[in-house]
């Protein structure tokens, strides 16, 4: 496996890009350590697949370098990078048995049959395919076909990185959780460097130790699932991660104090926003409560989602979600909203612009 370094990477599909908007990927600098589990997360069109294609060698970047364990591979084709890829749609040979599908990458590299048998048996056991090894792949269920595709990527022990490009897209929703759990288990057992591309936050946060969140070709935050939820560095991260996402509310700042709906809102710590920036308050619904004092609000919707209730309110023309236990108030009720101070943050032009109080996480 390999440590992967992206250095000053930018890419444009235009021959002569002139402005930042001409770039599908803005400048990216990051390191992925050997044996780590990583996810590229973001909406369609944010640059995830472009970045994956650059790492795999299908695209040569307009600028910057890609290094595997310090070796520059920027100009190397895919077959020289020693990588494995698992795609949205299973890439398998229907006329072959499951065993022969799993064995193919090893046989193609001239491995002896004893080694082939050992690796195929081990991977089949991990993927719960042992009972299907002698079956033709053609008539297997989509989830088992995707397991074979995963196995073909994992069966080799000499790959630098295994990359997954939206691998659960065609899997029935009730089976996705099983494959997500299985993939996490596989990583813990084989400790291969894995990069998982998805627009689904559940898939990314379940699988990855570190998540790279992308928006419009830019990396807006890199962190653990807990870090992304607890302290979003950008309003996009706050809104994109969580269900429902972070409340983003218009704010005015004067005298070092943030105001929303005509009231001063206590923040987690001092404000670092530059004068003239567009300022917003961000707080997750989990930290908004219905109290005896606070912001006057009108309940516009109440949704019982099983584990808790989402109460949607209107405050001065802005929507504020609160997550509460129990049934919640009736639609149309007047309530007062309280924000937990250490979880109430200020953002300037989208970026975090308040400091955590001393001793806070």
UniProtKB/TrEMBL annotation:
It comes from the Bacteria. The keyword Transport applies. Residues 4-241 form the ABC transporter domain. The keyword ATP-binding applies. SMART domains: AAA (SM00382). PROSITE patterns: ABC_TRANSPORTER_2 (PS50893). Keywords: ATP-binding, Cell membrane, Membrane, Nucleotide-binding, Transport. One of its GO terms (molecular function) is ABC-type ferric iron transporter activity. CDD domains: ABC_Carb_Solutes_like. One of its GO terms (cellular component) is ATP-binding cassette (ABC) transporter complex, substrate-binding subunit-containing. Belongs to the ABC transporter superfamily. This is ABC transporter ATP-binding protein.
